[in-house]
Amino acid sequence: MTSLFLLFSPTATAQYTSIPDIQFEQLLITQLIDSNGILDGQVLIFNLEL
User: Were 25 and a residue from 11, 19, 21, 43 both cysteine, which residue would form a disulfide, CB within 3.0 to 4.6 Å?
Assistant: First the structure.
């Protein structure tokens, strides 16, 4: 039963926030905050909360 909860837990899904300014997103990448390292207009909320 516990394993089912972990599979469907809301924290298990990646949640993103939009970053429409590519220069700001590049700064986030340079500062290693945007962990995927590509300019795609989004960043993981988890990385912003640390």
Answer: 19
